[in-house]
Protein 1
Amino acid sequence: MMPPATHHPGLLERVDGLLVGERYREAAEVLEVALADPSTSVEARWRLGLRQGELFLLDLSYGVDKALLSLSRLAAEQRGSAAERVRLHSRLIQGLTLKRCFSLAERAEKAAIKECGAEPLLLLRRGDRLLAGDDREGARRWYEEVRGGGGEAAYALANLLYVAGEFDEALSVAQRVAAGDAAWLRAARLRASVNAAILDHVAEAAVWREILERHGDGDFAARDRVALGLAMAASDQLAEALAVFRQVWRDNPEGEQGRYARARIEAAEVAPSGARRRRLHPFPTTAQRRHQCGPAVIDLCLRYLDVEIDVSAIDDAVRRGDGTPMHEIRGFLADNGVVARRIEVTVARLKAAIDLGLPVIV
């Protein structure tokens, strides 16, 4: 293992700060310049390469494959401090899990623990793999058993609780992540999502404001401002919401968020006075496995109606080869006391179903 790099003093800390703050474009520019500098030592180049691999994984516009190639190459080199080796292996396992290469992720985890020991960050990745495979109980037990994981562990458990629809507990756990922790921004967005799910849009808006106060210069700040505007509109602060949407639109009128903000402004301008708003109650979520889109939507609909059936049992009953016929979906729902009607969908019918609180499979 090598001693701390002395070339480019403060550069690694600067890049780490940019990554935590989601200033990915700036991080990419800094890394490109430093890696192109012929005076950058081999040791410093490895450390910078680790940050670049993390950047490829965090900013999905690069693609997970690019991150995995970069991180795998670095893992083969016996360089980096003990903490950096753990960080490297954690990201590599995370990327394999994102690609749903579960057997490879498990193999990488075992190799990482053999090299680095049972570090909390590596153990958390096992929980991520279980959750990605929809083994929620297994993931929860694993997250709760990990000790010393800090903000990352709290965020992982809070995210699982949110997926499971245990919103009060998810909010409580997410609040444990302290400001300044590398997981704070993700935990804060999760808190906003939980507040939205329980229809506390005033609290949701407060979280978005806090995010923008701390990280208003991040690459996703425009998206966060749109979310703030939506939370304000949902809490009947329409004038304030429109002001936020106008700011997003003025800042980047041709960008994705700017165009969306403009669409919200136009929708508000043409909406009739006193127009009512109707929303479904918080809807459950699930991690869909391969060829399980049919069983997944059945699972979601049944859980929304407070009917709990293991998704594996649903899959065994309805899937035929690589897909699920609609008649099997309808038959399974009927067998479990749910009347399903097949209709030619229109916007009016969709709105009517939402008004009645009925889930719709499109």
Protein 2
Amino acid sequence: MQNEEKSYLHLEKYVQCLEDPTNKLTVDQVINGTNTFIPHNIFFENNKANTGYTYWGKISIKNPHYHKAKSILNAAALGTNYVDVYYRDQDGNLIHKKNGEYVPYAEKDIKRSRTNRVNIEIPPQTQSEVYFKIRNIDNRIPHFQVSIESLSSFNNEIEARNLIQGIIIGEVSIMVLYNIFLYFFSKDKAYLFYALYIASTIFYFIYHYGFALESFARNLPQTNAYIYVFNGLATVFYFQFIRKFMDLSELVPLWDKILLWVIRVRTAIIFIELGILATTFNFALVASISTITLLFIVLFSSALLIVLLKTRSSIALYLIFGTVALKIMALVATYLLYYWEIRNAIGFIQLGIVLEILLFSLGLGYRFTLND
């Protein structure tokens, strides 16, 4: 750690790994025992991580300075259920820090955000061994994702998150209340389903940024997995909005019937996913079902938009442009996240939602003018 203000990413090549099939090894047994650690690249080249095992890692961090080096260590991938970090302080005492998606709020070292970061302090002019173990209970495959970043970098990230998400959630909340008011005023269900659709888009970002873990789910962090499932309601309300907005039963009756069945199936899938979580808490399976369903919905909605375009309806253009804007931003976010590893790339999806909301709102206004 030559520069405390610098971030060091992808440190897995410096990590030594140990597999614990019993999930019973203690930190004393790991540090003082005869267990053999294997370099990360060799270990995972020859072994596939088991969803039910605990994995230990260790990394050597050198502090060349004459003062304690304070930094933030991330040991595992986002969503890892339990992360425990151990290192010795200047007096040789073993320090234990916890984090992880399902660690209760009071036990977390860093309580803000959903990541697995903890504060570490390396004594001056020493080379310290930092040990960490990761474990999942929701059937996701555990894997190490080790990095070190400065305190200022982390604080700036959280401040930016809170500011941007505060603005977006505030805007969305205003739009929800406004459209609910319009529904009670006009009795037009298009406004009601539009308000519900806007509100349901918030679920994923509450899940992704861990806002529930910082507020109402502090003592029951597994709630976050259920919030992920309720994100599926956005599809249900989106298609209901299209049915009412376009009056599909009159415009294209066959597609209205198809859409009703898609809505019923998606609703049933949500209940199935909730049932899986309640009985087995297999989040990996739920996430797979949700992803496959989402891919189908993207393809189906694209076909639906083509049908609406062929009707030559002027108000359909608002739906088409709004949905396309969201899809383009989602593609940009996916590319930046997985190929450039830009952590805040998910914000492009929110930008797409804002553009979609704007265009849908203009469409509702134009529709009101036509019907007036």
